[in-house]
Amino acid sequence: MDSLAQAGAGDPSVFSIRTLIVVAGIIVATLIAQKVFQHLLLGHLKRLASRSKTDIDDAVVHAIDRPIGVLIFLVGIHIALSYLRIPEEPINFRRFSQLAILLFVTLDLTWLLIRLTEVFALFLQSVVQKTDSSLDDQLVPLIRKSLKVAVAILGFVLIIQNLGYKVTGLLAGLGIGGLALALAAQSTLANVFGSITILLDRPFAVGDLIKGEGFFGFVEEVGLRSTRIRQLFRTRVTVPNSVLANLTLENWSLLDSRRADFTVGVTYETTASRMEEAVRAIRDILEAREDINKETIQVRFTEFGESSLNIKVIFLTPTIDYGTFLMLQEEVNLAIMRALERLGLSIAFPTRTVYLRAQEPK
Fold first, then answer.
1. Are residues 302 and 227 in the same domain?
2. Same domain, 159 and 16
3. Residue 330 class from Cβ within 10 Å (0-12 exposed, 13-18 middle, 19+ buried)?
4. What is the mean pLDDT of each run of 10 residues along the chain (362 residues)?
5. Which site among 114, 162, 326, 362 is 20 to 30 Å from 51 CA-CA?
6. d(C-alpha 164, C-alpha 167), whole Å
7. Closest by alpha carbon to 286, among 275, 277, 295, 276?
8. Residue 225: inside a domain, yes or no?
9. pLDDT score for 253
């Protein structure tokens, strides 16, 4: 007890009342500085950011708010602890406290960088929205995720180094374990390279309707490992990018036109002259429409079917929307039916004629 009293009688010590008062003053000053920063400085920055036309500055102010406040508090605690004469024997509490503060500061700065990564992604998103290419729209989520992973790895490395471990020695010590980890991550790396291939080749973009082996739906998200597709029946399929990069895909969203190909069958009672009139009437119906490409119209009497005389009808329309295309087909079909009715022709249906021959009595 005498030694403890002597320690508090002279130099600043953890046991002296004067030291405790100074430490308490440092903590109070730290809290005041924290409030001044958050309410005065950041409040002023928030008012300035709210007057601008962009949301980037608002996001920056929001991102630095809490991490910087925590950093001010940690700096104040560090100053207070450095003023104290913390015992170093038999346990080095001073070294432990310094290391703890350093680790908390590293975590706080990592947190700040991750929040600023979101701001950078928001800035990239505002830039790519001004371009016509859809490639950069898909790159922004990948860049955001990659930066977050890089920041997290950097923070982890700094923590390891602050704990006194050499990262190079640690990596070298992994040895066979590192090789096993690389082999285990082979499929992950294949998916990452598959996503890069997809982004460079651009076979589709987010929102496109694509069809491949085992799926048919709209692309919802292209990630680092897989692509998520919402099928027409509203189920979601997750396809690894390494598989998707090697599939033969049909991109229905890149249609430049739709093709109609059907057959009109009339009965065998139709004469040759009536058939010519029917072919001419159908062609006139198609050529009269503005939403049909005139150069692609094909109307021909092509076949003597089993129960009908068949007229082949083919045309292309620039109408891409499927619902509008179905409406066009309906209008064309009704017009063809009315034209055949005016000509006195009937649309054939499958029939079979059976001839019975009476057997002569013996």
1. no
2. yes
3. exposed
4. 39 61 83 81 77 78 84 84 70 73 87 87 74 60 78 81 66 52 60 73 84 90 85 90 87 89 94 95 95 94 93 94 92 96 89 71 62
5. 114
6. 9
7. 295
8. yes
9. 85
Q: Is 128 exposed, middle or buried (0-12, 13-18, 19+ CB in 10 A)?
A: middle
In this structure, is residue 360 part of a structural domain?
Answer: no
314: left (phi over 0), alpha (psi -120 to 50) or beta: beta
The reply to whether 155 and 259 lie within a common domain is no
Residue 171 within any structural domain of the chain: no
Give pTM, 2 decimals.
0.49
- Cα-atom radius of gyration of the chain, to the nearest Å? 39
Residue with tokens 């036309």: 53
Question: What is the pLDDT at residue 167?
Answer: 61
* Domain shared by 99 and 33, yes or no: yes
Structural domains in the chain (count)? 3
First to last CA, the chain: 143
d(CA 239, CA 220): 12
Whichever domain contains 284, its CATH number is 3.30.70.100
